[in-house]
Every structure is written in C-alpha cells, then in structure tokens.
C-alpha cells in the first residue's frame, strides 16, 4: 500500500493496486458544500488511479480521463439538491465531454455522480428523472444492499450481472422519481444500473438506486461506493461473505472498472 498514506486504523494486508492503472487521471470536483471529495479521491487512489482535484469555479478539466461528482450538500441544497451546482462553470465542459460521442471523433467522458452528484446529473439532464425528499422525510444513514442490474457500463464491468454489493447510504433527497414512460424506457434499455435489495429505503420508483445514460459512460447512484473501498473504513457487511467491522469494500469495483476501461 506504499504511497497511499497510512490510516490510523485499518487492515493494511490487502493487495496493492495495479500499478498499470496509475496513468488514468480521474477528476474529482469540489463545490461549496461538498463533503465526500476526499473520500472519492482516495477511492481512485486505492483503485490504482491518479485523482485530480477540480474546482467548481474553473472551466478547465485539466485533461482528466474521467470525472466524479461527489456527495455532499452543494450550495446548501437551496432551491433543489444539485440545482445550483448544475450551473457551475466546471459543469459546462463536463456536460460537453459526457455527450462527446460522435463529435470530432472524441470518446465520451466517463462521469460518475454519487448522491449529490447524481442529483446534479439529473438537473443537468445527463440522466433522466429527478430526486425528491425521502418518502418519510427523514435523513437516512445505513449500510445498503444493492443488486447490479447492468454490468456493462464504464463503471460496473468488474461486477457480474445480478451480483449484490453492500455500500453505505446517506441522503435526505434520495427518492428517485420519473414518469412511467421514462421508467419503462430505462427498464427496456437496460439503463437501471443498481436496484435496492432488502427494502426500499427512500421510496425510489421501482427500487431504483442508480441509472446510466444510453452510452453507459454516465452513471449516477444515491448510495456511496467511495465509503466501501478500504478495510477498517468501509461498510459493516459485504454481499460476498462475512467481514469484520467496517471491513466491507464492495464499492471498490466501480472505480477499478472505470480505470481499466480508461487504460484500455
């Protein structure tokens, strides 16, 4: 684990990340009110890539190969969660990059929106639907079991179709909603990426926890995979078997998936 820094409490016996992935540069955007940017950056590092800090007021993506919009409460969730952040200067090149397929021979930019980042993706229309208050109008924080419904996106190739994972969930505006036509299209096109298992925590339509765009390069989900990447700091459980307290690392696969796709 050389070069990652030594956490205060952790199991350092895990395998070192693949050095061949270090050339993949993943931008992590910080907005006013962002909470999980450092966690997302560490997830990229643990997966083997190189995180690059991006500032919301800039318009330069610094040549990164992918972008993560992390969780938090950008702009205090005024108006609607993600509604103001969607108009931040950094979002223009992100939106252009995500939609770049077929234009000037550019490959589409992989983008992962986590929690507040997912809300930004819906507000910017990179993903359909919207996020509203949780069904019971309360903030939720717990480990959540998910089923991987689509293992072909840029961010999910390390998983098997139908595989279950456990990652932390923490949100207040986590109820995914869309009209029936949109929901039917998402289902028919295989664009539901993650689905809640063992109970719907926030009332999201059809138990949807995450979706993708038609190209599979843009993925948004409400739970936090970046909080389940490091033994000692992860979830208390894992869908792959028994683990020690805080040793669940099921979320690491999202970041490894993207890095391997970028290196290819």
TrEMBL record:
Which pathway does it take part in? Purine metabolism; IMP biosynthesis via de novo pathway; 5-amino-1-(5-phospho-D-ribosyl)imidazole from N(2)-formyl-N(1)-(5-phospho-D-ribosyl)glycinamide: step 1/2
UniProt keyword terms in alphabetical order: ATP-binding, Cytoplasm, Glutamine amidotransferase, Hydrolase, Ligase, Nucleotide-binding, Purine biosynthesis
Instruction: Cite the active-site annotation.
Output: 115, 224, 226
Q: What is its main location?
A: cytoplasm
Under CDD domains, the record lists: GATase1_FGAR_AT
- State its location(s): Cytoplasm
Q: Which domain of life is it from?
A: Bacteria
Task: Name one molecular function that GO assigns to this entry.
Answer: ATP binding
Q: Name one GO biological process term.
A: 'de novo' IMP biosynthetic process
Q: Which InterPro entries match?
A: Class_I_gatase-like, PRibForGlyAmidine_synth_PurQ
Catalysed transformations (reactions): N(2)-formyl-N(1)-(5-phospho-beta-D-ribosyl)glycinamide + L-glutamine + ATP + H2O = 2-formamido-N(1)-(5-O-phospho-beta-D-ribosyl)acetamidine + L-glutamate + ADP + phosphate + H(+); L-glutamine + H2O = L-glutamate + NH4(+)
Gene Ontology CC annotations of this record? cytoplasm
Per the UniProt entry, the Enzyme Commission number(s) are 6.3.5.3, 3.5.1.2
Quote the PROSITE patterns the UniProt record gives: GATASE_TYPE_1
Record's Pfam families? GATase_5 (PF13507)
Quaternary assembly? Part of the FGAM synthase complex composed of 1 PurL, 1 PurQ and 2 PurS subunits.
The UniProt function text for this chain reads: Part of the phosphoribosylformylglycinamidine synthase complex involved in the purines biosynthetic pathway. Catalyzes the ATP-dependent conversion of formylglycinamide ribonucleotide (FGAR) and glutamine to yield formylglycinamidine ribonucleotide (FGAM) and glutamate. The FGAM synthase complex is composed of three subunits. PurQ produces an ammonia molecule by converting glutamine to glutamate. PurL transfers the ammonia molecule to FGAR to form FGAM in an ATP-dependent manner.
Protein name as it appears in the record = Phosphoribosylformylglycinamidine synthase subunit PurQ
């Amino acid at each position: 684990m050389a070069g990652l820094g030594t956490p205060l409490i952790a199991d350092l016996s895990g395998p070192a990340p693949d050095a061949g992935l270090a050339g993949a540069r993943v931008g992590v955007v910080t907005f006013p009110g962002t909470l999980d940017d450092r966690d997302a950056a560490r997830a990229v590092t643990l997966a083997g890539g190189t995180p690059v800090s991006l500032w919301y007021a800039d318009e330069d993506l610094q040549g990164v190969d992918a972008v993560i919009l992390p969780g938090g409460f950008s702009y205090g969730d005024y108006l609607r969660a993600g509604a103001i952040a969607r108009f931040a200067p950094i979002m223009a090149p992100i939106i252009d990059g995500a939609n770049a397929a077929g234009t000037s021979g550019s490959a589409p930019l992989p983008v992962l929106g986590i929690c507040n980042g997912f809300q930004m993706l819906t507000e910017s229309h990179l993903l359909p639907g919207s996020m509203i208050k949780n069904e019971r109008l309360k903030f939720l924080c717990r480990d959540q079991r998910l089923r991987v419904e689509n293992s072909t996106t840029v961010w999910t190739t390390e998983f098997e179709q139908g595989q279950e994972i456990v990652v932390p969930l923490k949100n207040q505006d986590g109820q995914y909603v869309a009209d029936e036509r949109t929901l039917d299209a998402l289902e028919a096109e295989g664009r539901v990426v993650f689905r809640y298992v063992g109970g719907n925590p926030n009332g999201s339509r059809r138990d949807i926890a995450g979706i993708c765009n038609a190209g599979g390069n843009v993925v948004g989900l409400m739970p936090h995979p970046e909080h389940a990447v490091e033994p000692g700091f992860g979830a208390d459980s894992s869908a792959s078997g028994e683990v020690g307290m805080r040793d669940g690392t099921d979320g690491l696969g999202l970041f490894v998936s993207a890095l391997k796709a970028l290196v290819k």
